[in-house]
């Protein structure tokens, strides 16, 4: 990994844990204004929490949040592709934003989502290969979000292992995958790939805080380098409480900035 990538990843990963709590808020392009991300003003109410290490968003939301100072001291990951759920082919994500735009916006990394439905493999891999080539020219890390919609376990385990390996072969630096409710399957899925790419787990279907935290704990023990969770955070009435617990679980210490605040209060 070159120096530029190391520097940029250092803005996303915790210095001591080398893990991260990444919060994607790119859902608006796909499904519209969900609760918690109805507007940049609403996002700004909670996104500044020190438990958020990095944010994934499309260019329009990133620029507006940056204008409000809501992304200060956050890692910034620009999402490059997408497709509205109003389309009859929502799984066929189109490349919508250039690598150069990521640089102009000061992004620390770029991301793309590839949904595999058995008919779009060729387009997905071509897009990922081109994104990696373009990002490599500027030392930008690439996060690839893989969602496989074909088959059931154990076939899906074999497929996700092959899909992750293909993404690594094409040069991705990090992966986001779904979180299996069976810890042993997640351990097997990550066994071979965790040494070649940073792996973050998604939040999955909406659930309560306790089941979510248990799944995250299992994922960390399996070798995941953190989480990339959106809806299970921002739809909550109090995202701050969950973010605080997630950050402590992922990093094994208070969220960034909380320790300094605590020390300052002791000195007073």
UniProtKB/TrEMBL annotation:
The active site is at residues 147, 176. Coiled coil: none annotated. One of its GO terms (molecular function) is fructose-bisphosphate aldolase activity. PANTHER family: 3-HYDROXY-5-PHOSPHONOOXYPENTANE-2,4-DIONE THIOLASE (PTHR47916:SF1), FRUCTOSE-BISPHOSPHATE ALDOLASE CLASS 1 (PTHR47916). This is Aldolase. It comes from Cystobacter fuscus (strain ATCC 25194 / DSM 2262 / NBRC 100088 / M29). The lineage of its organism: Bacteria, Pseudomonadati, Myxococcota, Myxococcia, Myxococcales.
């Amino acid at each position: 990994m070159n120096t530029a990538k190391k520097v940029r990843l250092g803005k996303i990963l915790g210095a001591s844990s080398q893990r991260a709590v990444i919060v994607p808020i790119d859902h608006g392009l796909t499904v519209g204004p969900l609760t918690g991300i109805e507007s940049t003003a609403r996002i700004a109410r909670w996104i500044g929490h020190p438990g958020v290490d990095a944010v994934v968003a499309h260019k329009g939301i990133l620029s507006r949040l940056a204008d409000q100072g809501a992304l200060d001291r956050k890692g910034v990951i620009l999402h490059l592709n997408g497709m509205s759920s109003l389309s009859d082919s929502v799984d066929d994500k189109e490349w919508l934003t250039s690598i150069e735009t990521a640089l102009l916006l000061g992004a620390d990394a770029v991301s793309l989502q590839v949904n595999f439905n058995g008919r779009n493999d060729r387009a997905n891999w071509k897009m990922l290969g081109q994104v990696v080539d373009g990002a490599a020219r500027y030392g930008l890390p690439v996060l690839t979000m893989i969602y496989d919609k074909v088959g059931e376990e154990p076939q899906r385990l074999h497929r996700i292992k092959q899909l992750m390996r293909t993404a690594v072969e094409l040069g991705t630096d990090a992966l986001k995958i779904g979180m299996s409710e069976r810890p042993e399957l997640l351990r097997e899925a990550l066994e071979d790939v965790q040494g070649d790419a940073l792996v973050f787990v998604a939040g999955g279907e909406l659930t309560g805080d306790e089941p979510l935290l248990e799944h995250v704990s299992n994922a960390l023990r399996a070798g995941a380098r953190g989480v990339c969770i959106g809806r299970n955070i921002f739809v909550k009435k109090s995202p701050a409480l969950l973010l605080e617990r997630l950050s402590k679980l992922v990093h094994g210490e208070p969220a960034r900035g909380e320790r300094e605040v605590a020390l300052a209060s002791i000195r007073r």
